[in-house]
Amino acid sequence: MFKSITLRWITQIIIVLCNLIGLVIFLRGFFPSKIVLPGHNTFSNDSNPFLYDNKPQFDKFILMVVDALRSDFCFSNESNFHFLHNLINNGNAIPFTAFSNPPTVTLPRLKGITTGGTPNFLDAILNVADDNDNSQGLHNQDSWIYQFQTNNNNNNNNKIINFFGDDTWLKLFPHSFNEFEGTNSFFVSDFAEVDNNVTRHLDTQLLNNQWHGLILHYLGLDHIGHKGGPNSIYMKPKQIEMDNILSRLYSYILKNQDTLIILMGDHGMNDIGNHGGSSIGETSAALSLISPKFNVKQKSPLPKNQNFDYYHKINQIDLVPILSSLLNFPIPKNSLGVISKEVLTLWPESQRLKILKENSKQIMDLYVAKHGQTEKYEKWTNLKDGLDEHYELLYEIQQEMTTSATNYNYHDIILGSAILFISTIITIITFNIYFFNVNNINIGLIVFYELFVLLYSLHFHGSSLIEEEHQLWYFFTSITLLYLGAYYFDAFKSVQNMGLYLVLLACVRIIRSWNNSGQKYSSNFNIAYFLTENITLMWILIALTYFVITLAVYVQGGVLSTFLYVYKNFTDAGTLISFICIFVSSTISFSFKILQSYIDGRELPAPARWLLIWILHSYHIEPNTSDIKFKLQEISISVSRLATGFIFGTMFLRIVFGTLRKIRHGTITDICNIITLFLIHQTKQENIPIFLILFISKFIISKLTYKKSLNIDQYILTVSTLILCFQNLTFFSFGNTNSLATIDLSNAYNGVESYDVFLVGLLTFVSNFSGVIFWSLSGLQLLFESSLLRFEGDSKYDLIHYPSLKKSIFWVKNLITLFFYAVSVVNLIGSCINLRFHLFIWTVFSPKLLYFGAWTLFVNILVDLFISWIIIYI
Amino acid sequence: MTSIQKRSGNTKKSVSFIDKESSKKEKELSIVDNVVPSIKNPISVIPFHNLIIIYGMFKFGITKDVESIMLKSYITSIPIQFIYNYIIFKHLPKKNSTNVNLSLLLISSIFISLVLAIPLHVILVLFGAPIYKYSVKTFYLSLHLSQLIFSPLIILYTLDLNQFTKLFKLDNIYSSIFTNSILSMVLLSLGGCWLGVIPIPLDWDRPWQQWPITLLVGGYIGGFIGSLISLIKYIR
């Protein structure tokens, strides 16, 4: 189109920025802030329907939230809440399985639990990204916290609520609590301290009795889930601990009979202990109302079942009107909750209908405000005076209003998609003009790539294809390999090539079966599970991976020549220093992994235990002391910092010396290899050996593309296609999915002392996208220094020797990836607009939009463009 | 473009014995005829039995008991395939079918495809078939598939492997495949099996979405369609 490369770059960067801006505007329109009714509710008429014998059922409450308390943890026969089981059997506790509306993350759930509304999807991201952010406060929205505090019949003072636990509450209600202490919910590797920080307040609180409401939010169980899953060895003691706290609270309310205890989980967890999505495990939270005044006898514990079918299944937001009725205050304005039948039986027969009418009046007010006086309203005004009729209508309306989508901001959606659409058209035109004007390129390859992108982008229109995207990538990778094998690699020409090609296929097969991905199939027949069962093999493989990558850092690139220092007798001094730097950093990183496993409560093989004891001794700690966990936390932070420091220090030295000594060849390889060490540092133990396979695959690709680099455009297109396939394949093989539930936080706090949104965000990205980053960097290596990958030393086929071409090579590479992302994003937003009233829009498409945003911003722009640019021009 | 030119260069070298005076078109035709044995009456080798086998498998409840029905249908399909192979043989050109021990060829076609099921299983695994839990099913699939692919090829080439490899050196490999009913049947059996995997991850939750029913259906139907496609040249 235009000959000048600078002009090309300027256009490209404008398109990239347009893509980003368009996506951001689209997201702003797609996830608008929710419209809520302002103001606070009052009783519909002066006669208060909730009073029982002219006084409220309860005066005080204790809300005990146990994060991620799934219903089977409380009610199944494998549960360890034995005290609770007794209460249920005696009729003193009313148990429920409470459906928590996705996204099943703490912040949106707490909003739901307190206001009774269905939260905005964007709350899920705010939950991860919040830091000193006051925009989420609920001070303007009606909630039972507000209603409880201000509705006071006797005097004008506000009632006192004290709060201890997860500091998300403090962000939601910054001025509502009298005494409080918040603990940060993001430090997931701590199981004991977070809960002790809550429990230690109980002594004074239960003694001084200076409150009307007490809210406790325990985080330990959720942390155990994130780290070890629902079957972790820490789960049983934690459940017993929670049960004992419940029994303490119960003995308190035996003396203060006007106090109600609510024990609940804010959400559940899935089979691997994460949450955020909409699977049955994540949405089935436990909920129990406990008081010695109750007498609703039910059998407990119940047999464990896969559907989490324990007792009456209600909606979690039903808690809001239940609390309103029991504690006697108006139901908050935006609540969609319905008072459940079991609770209604606490009042005499004559009062029940009145209570339910109060509930339905409040919901209908909300319904009319949003939808106008429709048929449903007519139906309600003519409703017969029966409990069943009211329940039927209420549940119908609740269902309709909780599942209906929020109001979209069509102005932003149209603007965003228009920008995206135009920039995509320009990208497609540029791509086609460029590639069809290149001489000496196989037209078939271009057509193949375009078909591949088109087919891939079409998958966004099917919800199950998004959920099972890993299958798609496996399919595409094998098609690409088959195509390239026949037309590019010459795999069928010689025995050596055939052998290499088969090994590459085998590598892909192994990568694929490493982890479960997707929503549909989950089995234990995968390598990661096998390795966690065979820890000795796992640690041998981890050690081998560290060894191979370290060796690669040492011999593959230009480290040796950079640090070579010849001065009289000190011939090897430089080599020695580089050797020490590299090996020490990988050893420390390896030790950190051992330490981390120990802290997580995983088993370690004998030699690793010796190493662990040695680490502890070097920090002057006796392995069998009691408060070891707390100290270990500090050590792990310092070890991780040390390892990271060494890794980046080595890289820094390499770059500085390389620049000073003008060593061009090998820089990219060295940086990639050293960063690979850091990526391994940020990866889950059972996934570390994947890097060994990735390393082998990279080696084979470089072998198969031997001497093909001089047909430059064809070479770039081939490498970029392969890299795209491998990036995505690896991403899903690390156990990632397109659901927020699988975001892995276990390595997001390596070396972090306190929560820091930028640092933790960065580490979360690196630990979840480590395979993707690996392939991005490998792409540079393959393009510029593929002879080093083959351990061959300098070769004239390496494109690094053509510095004048650097700019255009990099431009073509980015054009190819931009083409992929641009076509995909247009299809994705097209499908989101098309299916915006679809049932799965919040559970499938919205998370995918967020993931795609991460891919575009972090992978395509940050890594592929920005960091790659730095690496190339260093 | 370079790679294509290179390949055509090779082809010319390998067929240099052909009479240089004959026109170019005739030369190409004779190359194709030499490399790919033509089938005399392609309509009679359309594999209608593929459809019957698929129908039979569903009739006997493959969705309820995948493994045993796959095994039974494989055993049932052996005599059918035997007869079908005989039909193919009868439609081979004279020069290919003389000096061949017919009974030995037919028996070996069944046995060799049985043996080749093992490497085919490995290839299926490399291309993503599950290993641990579904091994038996995958193996039965490779039995079926190997019979669909290898046994017609063995008959077509009368066990002449060299002749078969010449196919890949042809310039116009696709047109020669799609004009030969057996070759296009084999290719589309493979392609159908490959595409057959697509419905499995969809969330329709039907019993026929089990592994490997869709692949099996894809393979059989693909073969049938493939032999139909080869008839197009007669319509023109």
UniProtKB/TrEMBL annotation, chain A:
Report any Pfam family annotated for this entry: PIGO_PIGG
The UniProt entry lists the main location of this chain as endoplasmic reticulum
Q: How does it sit in the membrane?
A: Multi-pass membrane protein
The terms under GO molecular function for this entry are:
CP2 mannose-ethanolamine phosphotransferase activity
Where does the sequence pass through the membrane? 6-27, 413-435, 441-460, 472-489, 535-555, 575-595, 639-657, 715-735, 755-777, 815-837, 849-872
Q: Which InterPro entries does its entry note?
A: Alkaline_phosphatase_core_sf (IPR017850), Phosphodiest/P_Trfase (IPR002591), PIG-G_N (IPR037674), PIGG/GPI7 (IPR039527), PIGG/GPI7_C (IPR045687)
Start and end residues of each GPI ethanolamine phosphate transferase 2 C-terminal domain: 405-870
Describe its function. Answer: Ethanolamine phosphate transferase involved in glycosylphosphatidylinositol-anchor biosynthesis. Transfers ethanolamine phosphate to the GPI second mannose.
Known PANTHER family for this protein?
Answer: GPI ETHANOLAMINE PHOSPHATE TRANSFERASE 2, PHOSPHATIDYLINOSITOL GLYCAN-RELATED
Record-given protein name: GPI ethanolamine phosphate transferase 2
Cite the source lineage.
Eukaryota, Fungi, Dikarya, Ascomycota, Saccharomycotina
TrEMBL record, chain B:
Q: What is its main location?
A: endoplasmic reticulum
Query: Keyword Transmembrane helix, does the record have it?
Result: yes
Location(s) in or outside the cell: Endoplasmic reticulum membrane
* Membrane topology of this protein: Multi-pass membrane protein
Please tell me one Gene Ontology term that the record gives under cellular component.
Answer: endoplasmic reticulum membrane
What are the entry keywords? Endoplasmic reticulum, GPI-anchor biosynthesis, Membrane, Transmembrane, Transmembrane helix
Q: Transmembrane residues, as ranges?
A: 104-127, 139-159, 180-201, 213-235
Q: Does the keyword Nucleotidyltransferase apply?
A: no
Pathway of action: Glycolipid biosynthesis; glycosylphosphatidylinositol-anchor biosynthesis
In the record, biological process GO terms are: GPI anchor biosynthetic process
Q: InterPro entries from the xrefs?
A: GPI_biosynthesis_protein_Pig-F
Belongs to which family? Answer: Belongs to the PIGF family.
Q: What is this protein called?
A: Glycosylphosphatidylinositol anchor biosynthesis protein 11
Q: Which organism is it from?
A: Candida verbasci
